[in-house]
Amino acid sequence: MPYRAVALKELSDFLGAFAHPHRARIIIELRDGEQDVNSLQEKLGISHSGVSQNLSVLRAHHIVKERREGRRVFYSLTRAGLADWLIQAFQFLEAEYDHSEQVKGALDAARDQWSKS
């Protein structure tokens, strides 16, 4: 397989890990440091198993790592800049949604909120 095809396949697989809103939100929530599943569950408003399943995908792509403390498991980003990279993507999306003030406003508000934390 030519090197470009290999590189693009790897990039596509990596970007696929971000393709679910809960996984993107987990990455952003982990921006300020490690958290356990219960903390992420409260912030995302989804089931414990839903958080665990999404964390499993992120672990498989080496986006998050885990640290055990007794029975509790804490998750953190393997590369801190990933959350900032996702937040910066809102600027790109805002340009695409100039025709929809509702979506543009939501993107702008989310970027502002997460940029301050």
Features:
2 domains; Arc Repressor Mutant, subunit A; 3-stranded antiparallel sheet; 117 residues; mainly alpha
Structural account:
- By secondary structure, the protein is mainly alpha-helical.
- The protein has two domains: 1-79, Arc Repressor Mutant, subunit A; 80-117, no CATH class.
- 65% of the residues lie in helices and 12% in strands.
- The protein is built from six helices and three strands.
- The chain has helices spanning 3-16, 21-29, 37-44, 48-60, 81-96, 101-116; strands at 35-36, 64-69, 72-77.
- A three-stranded antiparallel beta sheet has the order 1-3-2.
- A hairpin with a 2-residue loop joins strand 2 and strand 3.
- Helix 2 (21-29) packs across helix 5, helix 3 packs across helix 4 (48-60) and helix 5 packs antiparallel against helix 6.
- The radius of gyration is 16 Å and the shape is globular.
- The model has no long low-confidence stretch (mean pLDDT 89).
